[in-house]
């Protein structure tokens, strides 16, 4: 393994350079939803360095919905390269023995990687993918009953007659010199089928009660975009299924005539980041257009407004939304303009970085950063951009079993990186 030169200076040193007294430290960030401790002052000061907003006429709906004060990690850390040579890798999942499953997006390949960086041959038996553009093999998760079943789950762009769509499959992982999967079963298919190589979402999140969240995009093109708030379509939704693909009885639309019963929430653009907090609530970050990336906490049966409301505009500069608010539609907890281009997300619960406890970490693609958010009472109160000196697109971030953070860089020679205290 190779250690990159990456040290975060102590806050005291930085404050000495600025000539200003630093804010008192916030040592124990609280779980989203817990009451605020009065003795812990909130961060203050200017936001992180970023460009001007693309849509300056759109004002936040409440204080702290965007551009909160910049914060700075006080713990020195190092970045270690574990493995490289991945072609645009997308996701990491840990096996019980701390080896990792790593997906390779355009090729549809899945690898087993040891903590020392040794890669297996590509796992045999996975179905063919449509690997064009944003398509391919996306997320992977280890089944909650893996010790008994050996089941792993993954998302991919499934080629179909008339186009493609996101699919979720599961199979038994069989190890050996040539690992393979057996008894592949597709447990969910995004419908309708559409010819688009964009915006299919694709993150998987298992919950402690055995349910599986799947995040979906609205396929980008207008034909798909207009279905994002329509409960008869999977486009632009979070769905919730059982591990065998069946529909939980308590889903919000199971008794709504004509609705897709898998739907959990509606009105999303393209969700590429998702994680549970310490209360086992789902949080997501979705890609905006030009401006308007959103942090949300999707709740059952709620409408998050895309494309009717939002905080961005078309890449051409043309308007999308007449307003940022509308009746019956939820506001994002936080938004970015300009965007960070989010992908991958974890909410830190480890012991290696006490000051990061319950902070949200998001991979940034166009922002070429690991974005850190400090939370209080389900609101963002501080933001930091880490690893900007590396100049890499961060596709994935997960917390390892020992409390380190593991990242994937989005490149034709993608790398698997590990963050630990120095």
TrEMBL record:
Residues 16-63 are annotated as: Disordered. Keywords: Signal. The keyword Transport does not apply. Coiled coil: none annotated. The keyword GTP-binding does not apply. Pfam families: GSDH. This is Glucose dehydrogenase.
